[in-house]
Amino acid sequence: RDTKTEVGHYIGDYIARRINTFVATPGHPNFVLGCPTGSSPLPVYARLVELYKAGKVSFKNVVTFNMDEYVGIPRDHPESYHTFMFKNFFSLIDIDPKNTNLLNGNAEDLYHECEAYEAKILEVGGIDLFLGGIGADGHIAFNEPGSSLKSRTRIKTLAYETILDNCRFFNNDLAAVPRMALTVGVQTVMDAKEVVLVVTGQNKALALSQMIEGGVNHMVTASALQSHPWALVVCDEDATSEL
Ligand code: GLP
């Protein structure tokens, strides 16, 4: 697609179609959507909200699982992923807040929090479609370079490049950016029936070429998707400059 907005339209329409044609089965009564944060998916959420407002899709039977959350900032912090999701998506559609799942970066027992998250995904029948973005270093969710491609939900220390990238959201104050996060693993994403990635902007061009044209490797964790049976990458013109 030419622009970020067009990418958002394309993926938004695509997800709405999936939700509308979803066939419920025993043990899997809801469409289960994996959700990312970051600037890349914003046009996708905007399109889905637009479709909801036009009566073209409903989220009453949708359950969501977010990819990740920072450790150590309050849930209602303006930059928490919890705040991001309610502000940009959940509060603008007809989803039941009880059907939205986000990792709790302030849980007393973070290990248990991660295990329970994986168990809950299994309980609802697995993720039907995981929407994702990628970091400039080719990470998916917060699976930083070096993460095992078999990893599952866990605590992760953020790479310096990611902390620098995210600095813009914390008034450019490097010290204010959380150093750790809870994140689904690469294998958690790989287990989804379908994965759709939104990759836009010149700053993702190198990561996109490494992810698609490089070998599958743990330094570019999104490259694992090369072996996913049903993965779609939607990008804008800018992101393709290194292909
Ligand atoms: C963070 C998130 C990722 C996201 C990435 C890119 O690292 N954990 O899920 O893909 O940021 O964000 P942006 O889309 O703002 O470039």
UniProtKB/TrEMBL annotation:
Hydrolase listed as a keyword: yes
Transmembrane annotation, as ranges: none
Occurrences of domain Glucosamine/galactosamine-6-phosphate isomerase (ranges): 3-225
Domain of life from the UniProt record: Eukaryota
Keywords, in A-Z order: Carbohydrate metabolism, Hydrolase
GO biological process terms, semicolon-separated: carbohydrate metabolic process; glucosamine catabolic process; N-acetylglucosamine catabolic process; N-acetylneuraminate catabolic process
Coiled coil: none
Catalyzed reaction equations: alpha-D-glucosamine 6-phosphate + H2O = beta-D-fructose 6-phosphate + NH4(+)
A molecular function GO annotation: glucosamine-6-phosphate deaminase activity
Top enzyme class: hydrolase
GO cellular component, one term: cytosol
E.C. no: 3.5.99.6
Function field: Catalyzes the reversible conversion of alpha-D-glucosamine 6-phosphate (GlcN-6P) into beta-D-fructose 6-phosphate (Fru-6P) and ammonium ion, a regulatory reaction step in de novo uridine diphosphate-N-acetyl-alpha-D-glucosamine (UDP-GlcNAc) biosynthesis via hexosamine pathway.
Protein family per UniProt: Belongs to the glucosamine/galactosamine-6-phosphate isomerase family.
Protein name, entry field: Glucosamine-6-phosphate isomerase
Species annotation: Vanrija pseudolonga
Annotated gene: nagB
Covered residues, full protein: 6 to 248 of 286
